[in-house]
Amino acid sequence: MGTWYFGSHPFGNLLFVGHLVMNQSDNRARYETRLGRVLDHIYDHLDEPLDIDRLAQIACMSPYHWHRIFQAMYGETVATTVRRLRLHRAAGYLANGSMPIAEIAERSGYSSLQSFTRTFRAVFGIPPAQYRKQGTHSRFRPALSGDDQMTMREVVIRNVEPMEVLSVDHVGPYMQIGKAFDGLFGWLAKHNLLAGQMRMIGIYYDDPGVVAEDELRSKAGVLLPHPVQASVTVSPPVSVAHVKGGEYAVLRHKGPYSDMRAAYEWLYGTWLVQSGREAADAPVFEEYLNSPKETAPAELLTEICLPLV
Known about the structure:
- It is built from nine helices and eight strands.
- The protein is of the alpha+beta class and 309 residues long.
- The protein has three domains: 12-75, no CATH class; 81-134, Arc Repressor Mutant, subunit A, CATH 1.10.10.60; 153-307, Regulatory factor, effector binding domain (Multidrug-efflux Transporter 1 Regulator Bmrr, Chain A, Alpha-Beta Barrel).
- It has an eight-stranded antiparallel β-sheet with strand order 1-6-8-7-3-4-2-5.
- The chain is globular, with a radius of gyration of 22 Å.
- It starts with 11 loop residues before the first helix and ends with a strand.
- The relative contact order is 0.12.
- This is DNA gyrase inhibitor.
- It holds the Pfam family GyrI-like.
- Residues 36-134 form the HTH araC/xylS-type domain.
- Keywords: DNA-binding, Transcription, Transcription regulation.
C-alpha cells in the first residue's frame, strides 16, 4: 500500500484517516438502516409474494443494484433469506400444530405441494409429512421404550457468571426473534462492534402456553468479548440486559429451532419434576452456538439454560 502525505502537519495522515474511517462508518450505517427496513418488511410479510421492485422502493435504492448490495452485506441473496425464513416457519407449523401440509406449502410461497416437499426435503433431510411424525422434536415425546428418547443425563448443571448483554426487544412469536437479531446486528455493524467471538443470547420471559403468541416478550442479545467503548452510546432500540448468575440446568439441543417447544416441554415437565430441583425467579435464556445462515437446520446447536434455586 502507498503512503499518504498531506502538507507538513505531523498529524495530517491521522486526521485524514480518521475522517475517512468516520465517513466509511457513516456510509455503512446509512446502508444498514435502509436494508434493515427491507428485513423488517420481509419478516412482516412472509405470506406475501416476493416483490423485488417493492423491496427496492423500501430500500430507496435502484432495483438494478440493491439486491447485490444486500447479498454483499448479509452473505445471502434476498430470495435465499425469504426461503430460509419461510422454511423455518414451516417446520414450526409441522412440529407444533396440525395445519394441513398443503396449506403450509401455500403460505410458504410454493405453487404446488410437490415443489414444497422437494425443497423441504433438500433442506431438512426428510419430507414434510415424515418430519411431522419423526422429526427431531419426536425424541422429546414420552414413550414406553426406545433409545432415541431423552434421558435425565442429557441435562448438565452449570454455574453461569452474571452477564450484561447488548439487546433488542422482541414482542411476538418466539420463532420470529430473528427479526430482532437482524436489527441488533445492524446496530453493531454501524458502530464497528461486530466480533468473531461474540456470543448470541436469546432471553425469553413468557410461557407460550399461557401468554398469547403476539404478546410474548423476549430479547435478542449478544455478549461481546470486550466492553463497549465510552464513545459508543447505547440507546434505543438497543439496551443492556442483565442475565442472572448462578446454577443453571443446561440442555444442549441439536436440530431445527422449530423443535424447541418440545424440548422445553420435556425440560420442564420431565427433567425438572424428576430432578428434585426448583426453578429460580429469573427468565430462561438460550445460547446459539452456530448460525442458521451457515448451518443446516439438523446441525443447529442451541443450549437451553434454565435458572435454578
